[in-house]
Every structure is written in C-alpha cells, then in structure tokens.
C-alpha cells in the first residue's frame, strides 16, 4: 500500500509568529496517522518557528520552497541546499510554476537544483505543468515531458528512485479550477511511463496540485496514479488544511 503525501505549500504566507500559531492549532486537531504523510513547505524564514511549535511530532515532515542551484557563495538573497538541510528540511520544491513563470526559472536551473538537492540529502519535489494556452494547443504532454526530462538530466544513478514529482497545471493554480480526476490521471500516466523509460525502478510518487480543497481532495486522491496532493490556498488555515489531510 502506498502512503499518500499531503504537502502544504504556504508560498509567501505565514511568518514565524503565524507559523507558530498555525502549528499549535493544527496539531491540536490532527493526531499522527500512519496511513498518510504530512509535509509543510513554509517560507524559509518561518521554518524554525514552525518546527519548534511542532516539537515532539516526528510524524510531520518539513521542506523549503526553493534553493539555489549553487552550493554557496555570492548569491545575495538565496538559500542553499546545505543550509536548508541544516535548518531541518528534508525536501525542497523545485520548478514550481511561480518560480518558472514569475521568476523566470529555466529548465537548466531546475536540473541544477535537483542535483544539488540530492547531493546534500534533500528530496526534490520537481513540479511540472502546462499553461492554459499550451493545454488548449494540445501541448500538455510535450511540456510536462520536457520539464521532467530536463529536471532529472543531472541526477546521479539511483537518485531518480528517490525523486518526488508534482503535476500542477498552471491554469489550475490559485484559480479555483482544479483538473478533473480524469485529467490528472491522464497526465500522471504519461509521467509515470516516462519515469520508467528514464530508469526508475520503484514507484516514484506523483502528487497533483492546483485548487485542491476539502471538497475535491478525496476524488483527486482516488484518481489512478495520484499519490498525494500539493496544496496552496487550502493549506493556509488550520481548519481547511485539517479537512484536506483528513480526506481519502
Ligand atoms: P492552490 O492550491 O492555491 O491552487 O496552489 C497550488 C500550488 O501551487 C501548490 O504548490
């Protein structure tokens, strides 16, 4: 049995004080369950406070939303993979649509970030997804396959088996318009076949993200090939996040 992953991407929301308050309220409601994994991606500045507020809860996992492709040096404003690891992160989002389309992150950079993450013991959650016009022109498969192949192009042998992938159609992010379970299953099938072609020897988890909420989480999670959910807006309030992680 696979253990579904429920990942909260807080984006640029919740500083240390809010993160602390969130964790206290959420953990008062959410008791550890061995049939699911819950992981938070707070802003890097709030990671320590969130972890502190969850002290003693070994069931909760932690990540950061971004790292530099370089290990250290004169890169003002950036955080490195070793720093993220040292701060208690086990995972990192790579190539999130906002990094790609707001900050201009390239396929080449996602390759470097995935490689440097593995080199320092962080699991990259590589995010792929097509924009609305790409979907409408029938380019969904080509786009997500290009992003996947590029993202893993610099991995060491064996790393692919420890990757996590997330399919987040750009048109579904923050729009209230989620992919249907069938839409998600179709793209997950293509990605899974490609992971095998690239040499994966295990079932690499593929999360779905994009307007997931308490009302649609169970159906999306039940879709074929969906191994978990990556959630933005509905992860920001303890109550709505509790409802999402209770789904399925
Ligand atoms: P929403 O859940 O707000 O659509 O955001 C999805 C997302 O980008 C998670 O990484």
List the helices and strands and how they pair.
Layout lengths: L4 E5 L6 H14 L7 E5 L5 H7 L6 E5 L16 H6 L4 E4 L2 H5 L5 H13 L3 E6 L3 H5 L3 H12 L12 E4 L13 H17 L8 E4 L7 H6 L5 E4 L6 H8 L3
Parallel strand pairs: 1-2, 1-8, 2-3, 3-4, 4-5, 5-6, 6-7, 7-8
Helix pairs in contact: 1-2, 1-10, 5-7, 7-8
The structure holds 1,3-dihydroxyacetonephosphate (13P).
1,3-dihydroxyacetonephosphate binds next to strand 8.
Helical coverage, percent range? 25-40%
End-to-end separation: 14 Å
Secondary-structure-based class equals alpha/beta
Measured by DSSP, the beta-strand proportion falls in 5-15%
- Output the helix-strand order: EHEHEHEHHEHHEHEHEH
For the report, how would you describe the main beta sheet? 8 strands, parallel, barrel
CATH class: Alpha Beta
Number of strands: 8
Count of helical regions: 10
Which small-molecule ligands are present, each listed once? 1,3-dihydroxyacetonephosphate
- What spatial order of strands do you see in the largest sheet? 1-2-3-4-5-6-7-8
The CATH topology corresponds to TIM Barrel
Kindly give the count of domains: 1
């Amino acid at each position: 049995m696979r253990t579904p992953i429920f990942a909260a991407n807080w984006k640029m929301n919740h500083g240390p004080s809010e993160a602390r308050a969130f964790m206290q309220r959420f953990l008062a409601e959410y008791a550890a369950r061995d049939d699911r994994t819950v992981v938070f991606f707070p802003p890097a500045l709030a990671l320590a406070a969130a972890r502190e507020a969850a002290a003693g809860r070994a069931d909760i996992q932690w990540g950061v939303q971004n790292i530099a492709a370089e290990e250290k040096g004169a890169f003002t404003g950036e955080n490195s993979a070793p720093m993220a690891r040292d701060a208690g992160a086990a995972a990192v989002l790579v190539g999130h649509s906002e990094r790609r389309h707001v900050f201009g992150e390239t396929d080449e950079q996602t390759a470097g970030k995935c490689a440097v993450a593995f080199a320092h013991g962080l699991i990259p959650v590589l995010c792929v997804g097509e924009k609305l016009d790409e979907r409408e022109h029938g380019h969904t498969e080509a786009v997500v396959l290009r992003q996947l192949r590029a993202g893993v192009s610099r991995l060491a042998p064996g790393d692919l088996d420890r990757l996590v992938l997330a399919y987040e159609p750009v048109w579904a992010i923050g729009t209230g318009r989620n992919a249907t379970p069938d839409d998600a299953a179709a793209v997950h099938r293509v990605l899974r076949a490609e992971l095998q072609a690239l040499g994966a020897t295990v079932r690499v988890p593929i999360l779905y993200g994009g307007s997931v909420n308490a009302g649609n989480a169970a159906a999306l999670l039940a879709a074929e090939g969906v191994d978990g959910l990556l959630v933005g807006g509905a992860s920001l309030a303890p109550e709505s996040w509790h409802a999402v992680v209770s789904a399925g």
